[in-house]
Specification:
Alpha-Beta Plaits; D-Maltodextrin-Binding Protein, domain 2; 3 domains; five-stranded mixed β-sheet; 10 helices; six-stranded mixed β-sheet; homodimer; alpha/beta; 33% helix; elongated
């Protein structure tokens, strides 16, 4: 009895030690895979929308969140950019995940039995070669993990789902075929966000900022000058509508270096003089698996 | 009898005179509204996917197509950018449409009867204030016009759809409330594409190009220099993954001027020297309703 109580206590302590990390989606989503790759001891908490994830951090319901910012085939996740501008959160890191789509089915089902395949439209498009080869009927649902869940709930022997390995584990499905995507250059870059800033440079850092420029010829050119003339490498530039006025944009820029590095600090100071608005999202270590 | 035959002939001639213009979506889609605003005599032909629209032009099944390129709240339509790079088509014009979302229901239905509202997730998000005020249950479907069609087919008296005015006409629905969007700064910019180029400057033109740069510090800055030093106004810059290599991008740039204008021609010549790839999508008249 004493041992039992002790174990309960231990369990609770272990649970408390787990870091709560928010993501958008159902259990088994690729975002959850990204979380567990960076925080093996995490307690991943799924939310319905990206906005709910950002709210959860602000309310201190989660310590961090992991959100997809861009995919190497599909491009930017627009909504996440807008939320990064809106919320006073900091970017604390990046995670790069190789997206591997798998064909999942109920145990005992063979590929010849399958007629339909459920997944998110983007995943279906990314596996079109495989789907056409096996003459499957693609059916769009809102979530890859949701497709796996649906298959299990319906106990459907004539359908498959395209989802992550983790979704197979969670929903008790069999992985019929692994890695069925057309293009293996399929990576998603996630950002780790939280309330607090990382102040210490590691020597291999990246900085993310947002800025706006006045609508005059050469405005963006002038905004890039402080980086170009110091040899600071821009790794990404993404434009988003300002929403304040049609056809007015904000620029989301990532570049190499920490904002406390002398070179970067002086570039940012100069940038401030040619921009109408500037927001520093944070400096953080470059992912070891960054493919350039 | 002769008159009857004559009329058939006339009808056929009239039909042939109609310009076939492709779009993505169901009849009643906002793209169809855009087509009819620019080609009052058009025969709009709906396709399931953007790729099918591009194929239809190449096969000469349609003379033109009208495709959404960006929305003032949601940003770029990524897939369309990739297809513009892939297909050897020319941009021949732009159309700017104010997107007005309407609440549609069966005739005889009042707002108090409605419990659910069907629409595309983006349209539901853009009308969230209205939806919350009336405590409606949002249900996501793949297409705004498809939502209207579904409502009619189900003969559902307890639901509404958010779609265009044209969708109300086509599916015989009643417009219960007009303009229910949260933000009235809601414009979509469409491009008119076709096989042939517009060679003649009008004096108020815009040019769209795509280019890639080598991954070295200052590469984008150097690519913008030819425009900045000539005072050529960039109206838009959008980055897209190259798909060839992760984290390598192509830049989609719109600027004022026709590519046969001396200033623009020399800027493009200079640009060619600092880019790894360049594709000119076309020069075309600036839309009269361009909001800047």
């Amino acid at each position: 009895m004493q041992n039992f109580l002790l174990n309960i206590k231990l369990l609770k302590t272990m649970h408390r030690e787990k870091i709560r990390v928010g993501f958008q989606g159902e259990p088994g989503a690729y975002s959850e895979e990204a979380i567990l790759s960076a925080f093996p001891n995490a307690d991943p908490i799924g939310y319905r929308s990206f906005r709910e994830v950002f709210d959860a951090i602000e309310r201190n319901e989660c310590e961090y969140a992991v959100i997809p910012i861009e995919n190497s085939l599909e491009g930017a996740v627009g909504e996440v950019h807008d939320l990064l501008f809106e919320y006073p959160l900091m970017v604390r890191g990046e995670i790069i995940l190789r997206v591997k789509h798998n064909l999942l089915a109920l145990h005992g089902v063979t590929i010849n039995m399958i007629k339909n395949v459920y997944s998110h439209p983007q995943a279906l498009a990314q596996c079109s070669v495989f789907i056409n080869r096996y003459k499957l009927n693609p059916i769009a649902v809102y979530d890859t993990a949701g497709a796996a869940k649906l298959l299990k709930e319906k106990n459907d022997k004539y359908s498959a789902a395209i989802a992550s390995k983790r979704a197979a584990d969670i929903y008790g499905l069999n992985i019929l075929v692994e890695g069925i995507e057309n293009n293996t250059n399929n990576y998603t870059r996630f950002l780790i966000i939280g309330m607090e800033d990382i102040k210490k440079p590691t020597g291999s850092d990246k900085t993310s900022i947002i800025f706006g420029v006045r609508h005059v010829p050469g405005a963006l050119y002038k905004a890039l000058e402080p980086f170009a003339k110091r040899g600071i490498n821009l790794t990404r530039i993404e434009s988003r509508p300002s929403k304040r006025k049609p056809w007015e944009y904000l620029f989301y820029v990532d570049f190499e270096g920490h904002r406390l590095d002398e070179k970067v600090a002086s570039a940012l100071q100069e940038l401030q003089q040619v921009t109408s608005i500037i927001k520093i999202l944070g400096s953080y270590p470059i992912s070891a698996s960054q493919h350039q």
